[in-house]
Design brief:
globular; 537 residues; two-stranded antiparallel ribbon; 25 helices; mainly alpha
Amino acid sequence: MKTNRYTKWIAVALTVVLLMRCESFDEMNQNPTTSTNMDPNIMLSTIQLQLSGSQFEALRNGFIYSGHWMQQWTGEYSSTEYGGKCIRNEAYMSALWVTQYSREIKNIVDMVESTRGDAARVNINSVSRIMKVYIFSRLTDLYGDIPYFNAAKGYYTGTYAPEYDSQEAIYNDFFKELDEATKAIDATKDKVTSDYYFEGDLAKWKKFGNSLRLRLALRLTKRDEGKAKTEAEAAIAGGVMTSTADMATMKHTKVSWNGGTFGGNAVSYVFMNQALDAEKSLFRICTTFVDHLVSTGDPRLRLLAGSYLEGAKRPNDITDQVLAKVGSYHAMALPPSYFTYEANQLGGAVEVTVAGAPVQVTREYQSLQPSRWISEIEAPYIMMSYAEVELWLAEAAFRTWNTGATAAQHYANALEAGVKEMTVYGAPEVAQNVISDFVADNALTAGQELKQINTALWVEFALNGQEAYANWRRSGFPALVYPNRDPGVNESNGQIPRRMQYPQEEFDYNTANVRAAVALLPAGKDDWTSPVWWDKQ
């Protein structure tokens, strides 16, 4: 019955998406002049689907740029050409902005405003406010100052060209909204329906809101550690995730509609050549990432990546045979910024046996691709994991903030949970003794705590390049060195950029306000080497 329920609402949501694609950008860039008057619960399910089901921004912002800079996945042409050489592409940089403002933000602002002050809908209002913070946090973390307070409020305030708000003011409002929203949740009031994350479980929504507050609090450690501590301890006191059962997970499926197949996880679309049921992936795991997984004995390596031959669902797993021939996982990964079609230059073919017959495998297919589990189109998407929360708690405890346990205990909890949560993707369960050995072998070391905790977050965000990029800018870990593939082409002064530049459409349609925002950037220039507010240099 659960599958039918998902299919029904996904079909509804996809219809909305397809209709929106018919709009001109000028129409999409404007604030709505009327309220949708839709049931906010139905709007909730549509938003949840779009956040993890749209490959457009997942590829451009999640993999071509921020994800590639984090050196977890490489090998696909656009990511290595633009991300690997740091070449500016306005359409790629603006992808998250143009999709979120025209789609999720219009709907989430309407949800919040249409239920504001309605005692009969206090829970859906609270959920809407939590989701609003989640959506806007992704944008401001990537771009810096953005339209926030008056964004998408044309129907309610008559504001059609919203000004840009400072990231500091936006973050202060995030904390206020999450505090009020989580405290307002009341199990005796209205039910939240059509909810893919928690199926209306209000206790889990409360934990999600507080866990999000904890994440955002840790963002401030370079800018205002006192404020970070206050907000983190308030979030912890309110109740954060305490097990993998609390994770915010979007379950995906694919459905037939109008002669085609739709639905599915955007990350899986990206991995599998942006096509359903593709027979091969253009992405490969990066040597930087695989070397870390090997050095720590992380059991997730074989759950995240494998060597495959082409074929529907990639049934021919040749990982063990290739490993025996080439001698190391390092030899089965690609250096940062190598295309898959260049892989053959790195070594000769090896012979393996498939169905009893010898097969010559070129370097391209020896290389470790995204695993069959994480690249399955119907794979779920984890919006926020319990392991992530435990890592935030570990850092908070290291900073001597009140978390209720030691940094070492939180860190151990996170490593164990990070391995166990892979079963969400349908990956095989790792034996408890293997997990226990992994945790014991990687205990926190005095003087290395921040490096270990934040490098573990880098691993945890293996499928969420934007979050990996945000925490790397905040923490400086892992200590990534830009590969500098082509210094003659590089457009970031040989460094990993610190933000995305504003879309050209903003200069066309919201000219005065975007220019005012740019004037506040270093040298008054909209440049991707300029840090956002919390990324204090």
